[in-house]
Structures are given as C-alpha cells and as structure tokens.
Amino acid sequence: MGRIVVEVMPKPEILDPQGKAVAGALPRLGLSQFTGVRQGKRFELSVDGPVTEELLEAARQAAGTALSNPIIEDVVGVHEAEEN
C-alpha cells in the first residue's frame, strides 16, 4: 500500500491567525530563535499498490480542486510519503 502526501499553505498575502498565535507562544516557551510561523495542512492519501506518476498526477488534481481553496491557498507539495 502506498501513500501520497499533499501539503497546502495559505498564500503569503493571506493572514494566518493560527500561525501568528503560535509565533507569539514560542518565545514564552523559551524558543525565541524563530522569526515567524505559518500554519498549513497536510493530507495523506492511501492507494492500493505502489505510487505511480499517474497516481501523483491524480493527487495533484485533487489537491488543486478538493484539498485546497485556490483563492487563498497554495499547494506546496505532492509527493510519495517516506517510509518510517
């Protein structure tokens, strides 16, 4: 069984209140070396059998239509999941 990972992030010009909240909390936890945080989404799509280029293309289509809102989000990655 294969897995495909789709990563989606808010467009740079879109406000990210969750990322801003995390960025504000990190210094209070002693983690002041980070200058910004953006929070996105990660989807894991399972497929029967190995991941092929055709399945990756289908995942890209799903990412652009069903898994993201192209008005406010960018699909930043579609790739086969690494085995742990």
Automatic annotation (TrEMBL):
Q: Which GO terms describe its cellular component?
A: cytoplasm
List the SUPFAM superfamilies.
Answer: PurS-like (SSF82697)
- Which domain of life does the protein's organism represent? Bacteria
Known catalysed reaction(s)?
N(2)-formyl-N(1)-(5-phospho-beta-D-ribosyl)glycinamide + L-glutamine + ATP + H2O = 2-formamido-N(1)-(5-O-phospho-beta-D-ribosyl)acetamidine + L-glutamate + ADP + phosphate + H(+)
Sorted UniProt keywords: ATP-binding, Cytoplasm, Ligase, Nucleotide-binding, Purine biosynthesis
- Location in or out of the cell: Cytoplasm
Which pathway does it operate in? Purine metabolism; IMP biosynthesis via de novo pathway; 5-amino-1-(5-phospho-D-ribosyl)imidazole from N(2)-formyl-N(1)-(5-phospho-D-ribosyl)glycinamide: step 1/2
For the biological process aspect of GO, one term held by this record is: 'de novo' IMP biosynthetic process
Q: Which GO terms describe its molecular function?
A: ATP binding; phosphoribosylformylglycinamidine synthase activity
EC assignment = 6.3.5.3
For this protein, the record's Pfam families field holds: PurS (PF02700)
Top-level enzyme category? ligase
Q: Per its database record, what is this protein's job?
A: Part of the phosphoribosylformylglycinamidine synthase complex involved in the purines biosynthetic pathway. Catalyzes the ATP-dependent conversion of formylglycinamide ribonucleotide (FGAR) and glutamine to yield formylglycinamidine ribonucleotide (FGAM) and glutamate. The FGAM synthase complex is composed of three subunits. PurQ produces an ammonia molecule by converting glutamine to glutamate. PurL transfers the ammonia molecule to FGAR to form FGAM in an ATP-dependent manner.
Task: Indicate the family of this protein.
Answer: Belongs to the PurS family.
Assembly and oligomerization:
Part of the FGAM synthase complex composed of 1 PurL, 1 PurQ and 2 PurS subunits.
Q: Write down what this protein is called.
A: Phosphoribosylformylglycinamidine synthase subunit PurS
